[in-house]
Amino acid sequence: MAVTTVAAPPSLPAHIAAETQAFLDAPVLLQELSHGLGGPYHALFPERFDTNARAFTAVLEEAGVAGRVYFAKKANKAAVFAERAAVLGLGVDVASHGELREALAAGVAGADLVVTGPAKGDVLLRVAVLQGALVAVDALDELERLTAIAAKLGRVPRALLRVLPGGQRHSRFGMSPEELRTALGRTDGLQVEGFSFHLSGYDPQARADLAGELVGLCREARGLGLRADRISIGGGFAVDYVGADDWRRFQREQLPEHFHAGKSFHGGFYPYHSPVAGADALRAVLAATPKGEQAPLSTLLRDAGVALLVEPGRALLDQAGCTVFRVQGVKERDGHGILTVDGSSLSLSEQWFDSEFLPDPVLVANGPRETRTYPACVGAATCLESDMLTWRTVPFPHRPQVGDLLVYLNTSGYQMDSNESPFHELPLPPKVVVEPAPGSPRPRWRLDRHP
Hints:
With about 450 residues, this protein is of the alpha/beta class. It folds into two domains: about 20-45 and about 320-445, Lyase, Ornithine Decarboxylase, Chain A, domain 1, CATH 2.40.37; about 45-240 and about 275-310, Alanine racemase (TIM Barrel, Alpha-Beta Barrel). About 30% of the residues lie in helices and about 20% in strands. Strands 1, 10, 11, 12, 13, 14, 15, 16 and 17 form a nine-stranded mixed sheet that branches. The chain has an eight-stranded parallel barrel with strand order 2-3-4-5-6-7-8-9, surrounded by seven helices. Helix 9 crosses helix 11 and helix 9 (about 205-225) runs parallel beside helix 12. The longest helix is centred in the middle third of the chain and has 20 residues, at about 205-225.
């Protein structure tokens, strides 16, 4: 009988920034943290956050555009990033009372907050009004509640009116053109500072097109006596996780047989390589000429005296953290290995998109090992068949052993905590802030303030 040989699975190495490399170069520290914390943990690199934030601010300055960068706090719960935002003079985008409270505790002034999210609760609206935060109003009933709450407090709330994108009419965020006209007729008691939108996808041209429409809305609103001097284009700035050649090779060579148990993902994968990412994506938005206009967005903004607000989350957290698991079991099945680690996929996954986090984890061996490629998937320490950190078989440089560490790179943008759960009474992985230690090649660490 003929034997079918499946080609070896391709690797997909992740970009490694200097801060992450310095951490990987201290394997004793990684092992000590794993032992001392008693389970998986997240390492955070605030210096990388600072670098990304300065890059976004620099793009606005070089374009000659007035604006503000807001850190989208939903991308990571760690206190250190909100603290860094406060120190750097960034604003913070919050979408819940808890996020607002944490941002204030981190030192962010109320006037430096923008409150987003749909159907905001009355408590969130009340605190936002008292703190002088900018509120992105998502619907007519929310507008009525905001106005009523502010009137009782004797305050004039700051507001943006969120617009439903014409190209994404199925979206549950924003107001239709008819609703927007109604809202503009109900602005008594409000300081309408401009408009905003929530747009899915990473296309700079699509973002510039809609931003151009909002500049036009600002001009119209001024004719009604409203302030209307700023627009928010949200986030949507892609992150470049892997190299172009590696991504193309991975897509070309990856086979269905390279996924454990024949797992498939009908929702597709995040575009782990992006030729235009982070601050460069903002640069591309500003350089694009919106549909129906004759000049780039940067010129339209300057000529109209409109400031640009951006709310990056994942892009500000690019290379700002990684996640470390300990291997606690190794077995073989169907021609590949199955590693079991001391945590759950709920601490590292794209599962809410029916997808998978694809970049290769780095194996930190607990001792020397013969080099010999060993393909293996990675499962969690739970009783769920579907609880897999990595369904695809990763070509590790040698057979992992119990006690080795797996380091998933660049996980601080959503991967660390958006799905976390203490299932099986497993503790949530703590967050460890890792920074250079003066006079020492080995980094130093502390626990993040957020519980």
